[in-house]
Structures are given as structure tokens and as C-alpha cells.
Design a protein that fits this description.
With about 110 residues, the chain is an all-alpha fold. The chain contains four helices and no strands. Helix 2 packs antiparallel against helix 3 (about 55-75).
């Protein structure tokens, strides 16, 4: 039996598949396609975050974080660089802790 996935997977997945007595068919992507596939994977994980709750949600958030780490690396940055930028933005513009929902702005 054959199952077709055609998606980016974590580095150890082929070894895990082999450990189950199956044969993975893989290829290594160039940077341009890799970026596209990371973006697809980020969207997939985003959907899974929305559908999950509790510990499952935290696990899905961790998956998103791993993808963010890979995307940052493609930009020549680290996850720590992204966190530092987020911290600067938080200091400058605030975070989302106060749960403020902007309904509208009235001119003058």
C-alpha cells in the first residue's frame, strides 16, 4: 500500500518511518521551494492550533515555533532575533495582555 503526503516533514520522520518497516520516498528541497513549503506548513499548523485545546494546543504552538525558527534561519536570523524584535515591538506598541478590541476610530 502507498500513502502520498507531498509535504515538508521534520528531519527524523524518514527514520521513524523506516523503523516501522516502511520505505519513505523523499527529496531535499532548494531554498526557494523550501520557503514555500515552510509557509504551507505554517498555515497547516495554524489551522491545527485553532482546532486544538489545552496541552494539544501548546503542542501545536510548539510546531509553529519550530517552523518560525526555520523561516527566520532562511532570513539569516535566529528565533532569538525574532523574540528580541517582538519584545521591542511590545515595549513600543504594547502586547495583547489587556484584551483591547478596537471597534473604530472617529476623525477629529
Amino acid at each position: 500500500m502507498e500513502r502520498v503526503y507531498n509535504k515538508l516533514v521534520r528531519d527524523n520522520i524518514p527514520t521513524i518511518i523506516e523503523g516501522k518497516g516502511e520505505t519513505p520516498v523523499t527529496r531535499v528541497l532548494d531554498d526557494a521551494i523550501y520557503k514555500i513549503e515552510l509557509e504551507k506548513k505554517l498555515n497547516e499548523e495554524y489551522q491545527e492550533v485553532l482546532a486544538a485545546n489545552g496541552d494539544d494546543r501548546v503542542e501545536e504552538l510548539a510546531d509553529m515555533l519550530e517552523i518560525m525558527r526555520a523561516l527566520a534561519k532562511l532570513e539569516g536570523k535566529t528565533l532569538q532575533d525574532v523574540i528580541e524584535i517582538a519584545d521591542i515591538k511590545s515595549e513600543k506598541r504594547g502586547a495583547f495582555e489587556k484584551k483591547i478590541f478596537l471597534e473604530k476610530v472617529i476623525d477629529g
